[in-house]
Amino acid sequence: MFRHRWNVLSILTAAVFVSAALTFACADDEDTSPTGPSEPNGQDEDDHGPGEEELITTLEITLTPSGGGAPYTVRWRDLDGLGGNHPVVDRIELDAGTVYNGTVRVLNETESPPENITEEVEEEAEAHQFFYATLGGFSPASVTYADKESDYVTNSGADHPVGIAFTLSVPENAANGELRVTLSHYDDTPKDGVNPSDETDIDVIFQVFVRP
Ligand SMILES: [Ca+2]
User: Fold this and answer.
1) Stretch 155-181: mean pLDDT, rounded?
2) For ligand 1, a single-atom ion, which residues have Cβ within 5 Å?
3) 167 C-alpha to ligand 1 centroid (Å)
4) What is the pTM of this model?
């Protein structure tokens, strides 16, 4: 009898611990701020409202030297979404002393054919913005926006950048480092063109190799 009761208590105790662990896991998942201390972890699982939740498996950047040259495409790809297998990430290789015209695309490659989610970002240009951070030895490089909301939608109010098109300037003193790309989604936070939202659709880091 005592043994049986102890077993029930053990199960209840275990259930409490499992429940607590799940609660912590959920709290961690919500911390996807691009400026926060959390590790970049790809797409989050926030509910963007009915019909708006999209899986982003792939972020693709195409860079073309502004002085001429072939376009160059790199991909961050995580086909099974958050968790599971690690993302497969191309290394970005650039030349010092070069300016690149850049574009970004986000895709859901679990669909066939792949769904181009960039089109939804364009349709909701006033509620989205890509942010680019140059990190480590690559921090002398800089990204400036090369688009506006009015390029994609009939704009109301201030005409903020969206960041689907951008210019990447790699000066002579830029070295190896990282490029972090985040896509902010503005549901509750007002978009001001400068500050990221507390809601992040995707958050990825590329290693960057700079040829001197
Ligand atoms: Ca994964």
Assistant:
1) 97
2) 78, 80, 84-85
3) 30
4) 0.76
